Amino acid sequence: MRKIIIITYLFFAGQVGIGQKTQLIADSLFFGLNGIKEKYPTVGLSVGIFYNNKTLFYQFGDKYKGFNSPIDKYTIFEIGSVTKTLTGLLLSIEIANSQIGKSDYIDSYFKLNALSNNILGKIKITDLASHQSGLPNLSNDNYFKKLLQKDATNPFRFVDTNYLLHVLSQTDTLVNFKKYQYNNYAFSLLGYILSRKNHCTYNYLLQKSILLPLSMTHTSLNKARTKNIAGLYDEDGKPQNNIILNDVNPAGGLLSNAVDMIKYLKLQLGCSKVNLQKAVQISQETYYSDDKHTVGLGWDIRNGYLQKDGDSFGNSCLLLCDRKNQIGIVVLSNHQNADIVNYAVDYIYKKLLNKKKNSN
Question: Taking the model in full, what pTM does it have?
Answer without folding.
Answer: 0.93
